[in-house]
Amino acid sequence: MLQYFEAARVGSWLGWVFNFGFGSVLFGVLPFERTVVILFAFSLATASVFVVNQYFDREADRENEVKSNLPVASERITPRRTLIFSFLLVISCLILVFIANVQVLPVFIVYLGLWTAYSTPPFRLKSVPVADFVISGIGAGFLPFLMGGGLTDKLISNIPSIVLGAMPLMLIHSGGHIIQAIGDYEADRKTGVHTFVVKYGKKKGVIVAGFMFLTAGFSPFVYSVLGLLPYRHLFLFFILFPLSIPIIMRYADVLKNPSTKNVIYIQKTTKKYGIIGVTVILAYALFAKIASF
């Protein structure tokens, strides 16, 4: 069972869970119990996404110094059992969604369909430059945020807030996808996976990702200038900024030398300080919601 849990790669989608939680806290349209059930369903769906991705990427992963030890690439889980495991995860997810809140079922289907098209032939959108990181932004940023809020009439009528709230999340995940692709560059090029980074180069990839991170970081200030976000909320930026300094330093290393080693360093640093950052953001959003601040 430990191998199947490892195949789910939970540590790689903690940021996706934050987006779900942020949507839940920001809109607060579902009872707590139903939100927990939908979160569990979302976790099952996301695990299935990563499992099926490993099935179709197993040859490329064997060429990847970081991913070669994954359960599917190393054949600790056979391809047949990988598909069965992914199928069971999807079925369990859909049953839970149907029981807890059938209104979000269409979003879950879109979510699963989008990520399936990303990994599987004939679409294999991960091998289509630009589409690869755009899908990551939508699939890891926007859709989890929407699932967390719940698809109700109240939420549908608040489309501008959904888009504004999700935009920084989408940019961060698109940029993060590019950084990951830089780490996978050698294996992807060798196995014919034509990502944005493979086509345009690692250096351009780092620059594009940095622009996305910068835009996401300053988006609250833009929202405030446009009157979309009260200025009093901006002090949270100054609380979080010290946590971003180590990440910025690691980004500078990747910009200087976009090697797999530096990508691993920035990912570890981001995970270390990012967990603290997202906890602060969720706590603040919850407090602001309760206090109507």
Detailed description of the structure:
The structure is a single chain. The chain has a single domain (2-291), classed as Farnesyl Diphosphate Synthase. The chain has helices at residues 2-8, 14-27, 32-56, 58-62, 79-100, 105-119, 131-149, 153-156, 159-183, 185-191, 196-200, 202-225, 235-256, 260-291. Helix 2 (14-27) packs parallel to helix 14. With 293 residues, the chain is mostly helical. It is globular. The longest helix is centred in the last third of the chain and has 32 residues, at 260-291.
What's a concise summary of this model?
This protein has 293 residues and is mostly helical. Helices cover 77% and strands 0% of the residues.
Describe the sheet with the most strands.
none
Q: Span between N and C termini?
A: 45 Å
Spatial extent as radius of gyration:
19 Å
- In helices, the fraction of residues equals over 70%
**What is the second-level CATH architecture?**
Orthogonal Bundle
What is the tally of beta strands?
Answer: 0
Number of domains: 1
Mean pLDDT: 91
Could you please say which CATH topology applies here?
A: Farnesyl Diphosphate Synthase
Q: Would you list the SSEs in sequence order as H and E?
A: HHHHHHHHHHHHHH
In percent terms, what proportion of residues is strand?
Answer: under 5%
Helical run tally: 14
Uncertain segments are none
Shape: globular
